[in-house]
Amino acid sequence: MENGGEMIKKTKGRQKREIKRIEYKKNCQIALTKRKDGLLKKANEIKSLCDAGVDLIIYSSSGKVYYYGDSSLKTIKMTLSNKQQPQGSNQFLGYIMEKMYRMDM
Known about the structure:
Blueprint: E1 2-3, E2 6-7, H1 25-50, E3 55-59, E4 65-69, H2 73-82, H3 90-102
Antiparallel strand pairs: 1-2, 3-4
Helix pairs in contact: 2-3
């Protein structure tokens, strides 16, 4: 539609959404279910475009673990335990390593 030579948009178009924590556990699980495939698709895209090794581990709030990657978890464990980690990441890395050692994959 035109108004004096200018086009008038009928919709707002694609809007940027604010990222904030989802408070309700059920809604959080629904969001993960909807977005998990998109994350896996992006990981595969990065792997293909950049010729990079990609390993993606997702821990859900319900305790489920989702894994996508080239490497076996055994290889990832060895790599993480042998690398020098940046200061401040040790607590999180310890948490991840503990979870990985408990998994039977």
